[in-house]
Amino acid sequence: MAPGAAKSVWHRRVAAGLSLALSAALLLIAADAALAQSSNAVVGTDQAAKLIQEDRLAEALEQLDRIIDRSAEYWEAHYQRGRALALMGRMQEARDALVWAVTLNPGFAHGHYLAWLAALELEDYGTAWEQAISAELAGLDMSEQFPRLTAVAQVPEDILDRLGAPRVFVAPFNTDEIEGNAELPYNRNPQVEENRISQRPDAIQGSFRLQEAAPELLELHRQMRLAIQRAPYLGLTLDPGNATVYVQLTLDTIGERSPRQLDGTLQAVAVETGEVRWQREVTLRDISSVGAIVPEIERYIREMQGEIRYREPQQRH
Asked: What per-residue confidence (pLDDT) applies to 121?
């Protein structure tokens, strides 16, 4: 593709995705503010997005690099950085930034889409297939894009099974069993009812415990989404309206200090029928350690995948 044509494609795609990015920012603002440690990162990234709209790409990139230096885990800064780099023709860096953005915020459909487009232009077909499949399962209609891949790259042997996978929405954690219900900083959709802080006098201690554990719970929620995204025959979506299965963790007990043990119940529920398709009692011995929770979560998700994979109707593909 000629450089001018490539840039034109990116301008159209990036512009089309701007409203989606801003909507996603509204969904994730509470969680991202916690990760960014300061509202300055959120405000600065919004400003950089406007600079990109105005084609002031070098200024936007400089601002985003400063934000990432201070708040490396803020997913949208990496997403906007990927957009800017792509429009500048720096495709390898753009692909890497966009892939990292959807690692920090798995299931963000348009992030997967732009990562697919960057990988395709680099002839990185393995990454392109993974990101295209993730975008489709997250809720984008990729039916017009898949032929571009099949024309130049071998189709994965299990493509129909992967595209027909259950589409999973990870709901906010149910904290009703914890004394005091707190508003926790999840990556959530506004259609999902938010947790609220109980006003009962005997709920204060439980609310404080949940607030103290909020960073660990946020990371646990992200690791659950990553494990679902890595499972070959499960699809991850941030849109509950696109989901065929809801997954929710109910917290029974949570430790007061590190190592912070969590006990609860993890279940997968069919959206259409409300039927519980899979349920397990879970114990996570230290949610303050990513290294400790990842293998435990992946074990539960693999088991869940085996139970619900063949019980879902085939999805559009």
From this structure: 96
